[in-house]
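Please think about what follows:
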Amino acid sequence: MSLKNDIHTKQFKSEQEKTFVNLIHTAAYFESKFNQFIKEFGLSPQQYNVLRILRGQFPAPILSGDLQKLMLHRMSNATRLVDKLVEKGFVDRVKKEDDKRKYLVSITKPGLDILHQLDEGVADFDDKIMNLSEVQLMDLNLLLNKLRSSCK
């Protein structure tokens, strides 16, 4: 797979531009593949992300505002995502006792169960799509972390 062929361009102004376009293109490619995979379970990637965050907090609930800050797609509407997950029985939401404007969100047993079902499939998905050695993955993670750190 070649970036130039994938996006039908002849050249880039700089290696930085090429890298930036490559990062966006690669992220969109992986996200599209994951969307296809997760759809089979009746979840969106953003709902899956919310469930994973809540499992990490379990058994403690989390404020809905704090949940938004931990999401991969921070522009997502966390309230709407939580509403959908409440409808599916995967999360509970209760008003905070001392501030009725705030909600505490926690994962339910069915929410934990669906994540447990997904764990093996996600691991298989990752193995297939992240076809790099352990050392290459570690190097890539290091570079991505360094790149994000340099932008702050």
